[in-house]
Amino acid sequence: MAAAEHSVLAPSVNAARFAASAGVPLQAAVAAGVIGLGDHHGGAVDAGAELLREAERDGARAVAERYRDAGRRLPGYGHAIHDPDPRAARLLEVAGSLGLAGRHVDVARELAGLTEDVFGRRLDLNIDGAMSALLLELGLDPGLGKAFYVIARAPGFCAHVFEEQTKERPYRDVGWENVDYGGPGPRELP
């Protein structure tokens, strides 16, 4: 549930809705939404799990400093909208009550505690980071991180696609007022 829906702010939702507006069947438009889950949207769980493995192996501070020195973001930390991310806190609370918060959750929290010192600002664990830690707690391969988003987002994609097909006019566009041409100017053709 924690990763189920982001209204129309997520690129994957827009992909599903745009495909639906073209007149394709529900499952094809939902598939477009799933295809819209990538490294920049829905992919931080995989990367976050790898980060936690690295921090467990090399030490949280060393890894945080390595990421900082390379100019890389810490996957699973910080969020543009949710600061702090209440979904992460709740997910870890539930995991703790079920006995699923172990060493990976501890490493994730340790990294969060170092961020202010290492990065100059506090970066709280976000939903991707919490899911990363729990993926490892469950003994699952980090490559399954996106699977959590595919499973979580499918019902929302279905709802968005159905709404697009039944309540919106076909052939959605971005609106010409949102388009700015950046190519070459007018030219003579032979």
Tell me about this structure:
By secondary structure, the chain is an all-alpha fold. It has two domains: 54 residues, no CATH class; 101 residues, Orthogonal Bundle (Cytochrome p450-Terp, domain 2). It is 57% helix and 0% strand. Helix 2 packs across helix 8, helix 4 crosses helix 6 and helix 5 runs parallel beside helix 7. The N and C termini lie far apart (60 Å).
Give the topology string: H per helix, E per strand: HHHHHHHH
What's the CATH topology name of the largest domain? Cytochrome p450-Terp, domain 2
**What would you give as the CATH superfamily of the largest domain?**
Cytochrome P450-Terp, domain 2
The helix content, as a percent range, equals: 55-70%
Provide tags for this entry.
190 residues, mainly alpha, Cytochrome p450-Terp, domain 2, 2 domains
Please describe the topology of this protein.
Elements: H1 11-21, H2 26-35, H3 44-58, H4 60-69, H5 86-97, H6 103-119, H7 127-137, H8 145-167
Describe the structure concisely for a colleague.
This protein has 190 residues and is mostly helical. It has 8 helices and no strands.
